[in-house]
Automatic annotation (TrEMBL):
Organism annotation: Paenibacillus terrae
Domain of life from the UniProt record: Bacteria
Single GO cellular component term: membrane
Lineage: Bacteria, Bacillati, Bacillota, Bacilli, Bacillales
Keyword field: Oxidoreductase
InterPro entries assigned: NAD(P)-bd_dom_sf (IPR036291), Sc_DH/Rdtase_CS (IPR020904), SDR_fam (IPR002347)
UniProt-recorded name of the protein: Oxidoreductase
Similarity comment: family membership: Belongs to the short-chain dehydrogenases/reductases (SDR) family.
Pfam families: adh_short (PF00106)
Amino acid sequence: MKLKNRTILVTGGTSGIGSAFAKRFHEMGNTVIITGRSQKRIDQAVKNNPGIIGMVADVSDAKSVEQLAKELAKHYPKLDIVFNNAGIINEFDLFDESITYEYLISEINTNLNGTIYVTKALLPLLAKQREAMIVNVTSLLANITVANAPTYSATKAGIHMFSDALREQIRYKGKNIHVMELCPPVISETNLTDTYDEGLMNKLISFPLTKLVNVGIKGMLRNKLRVNAGFTKVMRFSMKFAPDFITHTWGQMILKQGNKKN
């Protein structure tokens, strides 16, 4: 798929992965719209990146997503790429009695439900285009659980399964909408977690944000089904042979490293 003169929506586009892709898309000659929950952060992102358009939207809120879809259909009817990136990660101890049920499911609401809401709301608009694309950002941690963030991996694995089902429905309907899953390893610049900020683990699994953008763009240009970046390739391959051993070893290593920081 050519990535020029496109109209692209990037959710969670005020920082991290979303911001980096939004900037690159804009540099490539596309109309780029970013979303975020905070008007202040949207305003700052637009100020720092002249030409990028900002719209406030909470992907975890179905009504907010419906309003976003209406605004896009009205003002940007040529929207042909949706980059589902908005996500949060919460590290917590399941034995901690102070953890609320609302906190437990907040990642599900943003990461998984948000991806589903945005995709469903914008499918009719995408289906009107001659060619369109949906990019769903999952993670290395869709392949193996991260023990100190029990819900996060579940959401990313859910997006992986949703992406596969979405792709098959699109094929069955005969629509020219590509679905690509982007699976980054840990990206230190995103500040999603501080568990991996130093030591051997960081050297093994971290991946520069600029490099992720490069491989992601290449995958989009080639209409790839899935882009496994960096250490994600290794982990995805390894989990085919010794999933229980790797999950246990990885899980204990994560928990020990997290405890050292506390």
